[in-house]
């Protein structure tokens, strides 16, 4: 299996993790205020006391699994883009690695926040709330509360694809819209709306990129022409 096809499957996994995250945001986690500026810390800790595994699962899927798949996609797209725009390809590689690192870091901190809150809530609920809120703020700062790093990477990939004619028009268009949404999360007043635009746009973009990598005739072989079992 070529690196390009591995990247295609990775892109679809990224899309699936976003869909998984959105499904929980609008259902199970909606009463807690996740994804908004009015998250209810005490309610979150109460939820953690009753179902800590569910939050850990959510963090693991939307952050850690997503970051691993994202790293593979970054490598595949670098291979795709470097054939026509070596300069842009290197920029996208660096930016993609930065984003994947931030995402996996946010997931690890998110899981530690759940574990610490669950432990502290056994003896001091108010301290558990304070610790969770502090660690959650760090998680949001790394990427859970803004999409600047992702917006920049997707935007650069789309521009490189446009200049090098290595990506389709649909992928490029979706990428530019998604990138704009990510960059606009910088502004708190429209952060929720911009975040939704980025998230929904990213799902469509990951699917478009995944299909492009899987079904395109061009392929980037693995080192030494190896095959993956």
UniProtKB/TrEMBL annotation:
Domain of life assignment: Bacteria
UniProtKB keywords: Membrane, Transmembrane, Transmembrane helix
TM regions (residue ranges): 9-34, 54-76, 88-109, 148-164, 171-190, 196-215
Protein name: DUF4386 family protein
